[in-house]
Design goal:
The structure is a single chain. This protein is α/β, with parallel strands linked by helices and about 180 residues long. Helix 2 packs antiparallel against helix 3. It contains four helices and seven strands; from the N terminus they run ββββαβαααββ. The protein has two domains: about 130 residues, Rossmann fold, CATH 3.40.50.150; about 40 residues, no CATH class. The protein has a seven-stranded mixed sheet. About 35% of the residues are buried. The radius of gyration is 16 Å and the shape is globular.
């Protein structure tokens, strides 16, 4: 089995789709902070694309630990989170085109950086590679690695199927 945590309104057939909102196609409706209604060690791999950053900082390690709990031994978690370092580099290059923020919302490149990093107020915790690796380790994961878009270092080639937003995303894999 494979888990798509934080699927939002885009559940994917063939996955256990989990979200806190009772949307069509969501199999597990739960706030991860309260636990997922899944048995221990029941999924081979889990993917969380652009969901973890919406949690406040104190909830990150417990959420990661809950994802670790549902992974089978040797299972892999793949995270996709906004890459703060990449956004800062674009800001320092004065590269307004990097940002997905229309000029009507913020014309200044600094404004674009602020709006994109907070994604109009929904992002509570921005991520860098080192910070993501540290949080995964604190949640008990081992072998935490940075990966590229649609590139996995795991034994599950299909784990990259949910990758999106290549330009702005930091991809991380961690093993239980």
């Amino acid at each position: 089995m494979r888990l798509n945590w934080g699927c939002g309104p885009q559940p994917v057939p063939g996955w256990i789709n989990a979200d806190r909102l009772p949307l069509p196609g969501v199999d597990v409706v739960a706030d991860i902070r309260d636990g997922l209604a899944l048995p221990d060690a029941c999924v081979a791999y889990a993917v969380a694309m652009h969901a973890l950053q919406d949690l406040p900082y104190p909830d990150l390690v417990p959420a990661l630990a809950e994802l670790r709990r549902v992974l089978a031994p040797g299972g892999v978690l793949r995270l996709g989170v906004p890459d703060l370092q990449r956004a800062i580099a674009a800001y320092l290059r004065d590269e307004a085109a990097y940002f997905h923020v229309p000029d009507a919302d913020a014309a200044d490149v600094g404004g674009k950086l602020a709006v994109q990093i907070s994604w109009y107020g929904s992002v509570r915790t921005p991520f860098t590679w080192g910070f993501a690796a540290e949080l995964c380790a604190r949640a008990g994961f081992r072998d935490v690695r940075r990966c590229g878009y649609r590139t996995t270092l795991s034994r599950f080639p299909e784990i990259v199927a949910l990758d999106n937003r290549e330009r702005e995303t930091l991809f991380v894999e961690a093993t239980r």
